[in-house]
Amino acid sequence: MSSGQGESGGRQEGQLPASGSVVTGGGNGVVFSGESIRPAVVSLSNQRLRLNPNKEHKPDTYDDLQLDFSPSIFSSLERYLPPSMLGMPRDDKVKFMREILLKYLPHGERNRVQKHREYRQKIISSYQPLHRELYTMHPATTFVPSFLKAISDNTEESFRSIMSEPSPGVFTFEMLQPRFCELLLAEVENFEKWVNDAKFRIMRPNTMNRYGAVLDDFGLETMLDKFMEGFIRPISRVFFSEVGGSTLDSHHGFIVEYGNNRDVDLGFHVDDSEVTLNVCLGKQFSGGELFFRGTRCDKHVNTGTQSEETFDYSHVPGQAVLHRGRHRHGARATTSGHRINLLLWCRSSVFREMKKYQKDFSGWCGECQREKKERQRTSIAATKLVKSFFLLKKING
Ligand SMILES: O=C(O)CCC(=O)C(=O)O
Ligand SMILES: [Fe+2]
């Protein structure tokens, strides 16, 4: 399993111009409710996972547990359990799978997961939510009807009917109900007030942000998991399948804030995500445009921008922007007012695993595509040259 689905939340902006340093953010899963280990599981700990998933098996749901990995990772992994374990109590399966997941993490990462778990535990044990209804997914009060209809139809046509694609790979659409935006803004304000009153040192989404908050850290992780699975994955399956859009299985959910006494702008970067959702929650502001500069794989992240890849977008409250994490972007200075956005970095452990073993995984990179075209042009030109050489030879006897 990739550690990317664990708790790393840093933007991968290190190599890019005009960027800050890579940071830890928060990741997925809150706290594991550590009970004592039962012997049944200990004796099974040397059992191996199956090579192929058991597709007939219907996995348990893990949404109601406080775990240090995303609940959907447990549901996916359950299909790989040895057959003798499938009928076991859910707690036993959780312990077994958690041990496996931890085993895959290097030692330093394991410590970080542990520390982060304690950090979340501290917040959740004393923070009193303001609007409890936000903590469970209620589609009808969260999303606008046009968006819900497109999701329930679940076809490329239905998605295209509510979306614009003003630049290749950047999709914009109306998504959240104004009332939901208001409640979320009030919840974030309430959380920040608690942080100040309690003099609690919170982790920011990234070192590039001095403000903002990780929503997963104060209890919204399960709701955001449902948000991703039910409402982002179906769209990504259609538009971003080549970067794991259909297998998104974990997320990093946070708020960014700009304006007076807040962050001003955001440097040029790529996200630590396969697919990024960026929704403007409010309030009133000027400036703060997003700028996009083409999709790049690791090898080409610092290459120049072609004119057709340049795209600037002014965000509107309630509107969503959906793009590949590797689509290079940044945000210009918010020159007045207060701009607050919800960010959901969606990740696919399957895609990250496959990327490790397959070299040619970047057909979606603008520069790879250009290189490929150039190679084709050169080979066509070479073929023509050889053909005319033989023709000339034939003519000249
Ligand atoms: O400020 C914005 O809207 C962009 C935020 C962003 O790109 C990010 O947090 O990764
Ligand atoms: Fe970003």
From TrEMBL:
Protein name: 2-oxoglutarate and iron-dependent oxygenase domain-containing protein CP2 isoform X1
Cofactor(s) in the UniProt record: L-ascorbate
Domain of life, per lineage: Eukaryota
Cross-referenced Pfam families: OGFOD2-like (PF25238)
Source organism of the structure: Ziziphus jujuba
Domain Fe2OG dioxygenase: 249-348
Region annotation (Disordered) ranges: 1-22
Keyword Repressor tagged: no
Low complexity compositional bias, start-end: 13-22
KW Oxidoreductase (keyword) present: yes
Record-linked InterPro entries: Oxoglu/Fe-dep_dioxygenase_dom (IPR005123), Pro_4_hyd_alph (IPR006620)
UniProt entry keywords in alphabetical sequence: Dioxygenase, Iron, Metal-binding, Oxidoreductase, Vitamin C
Compositional bias annotation for Gly residues: 1-12
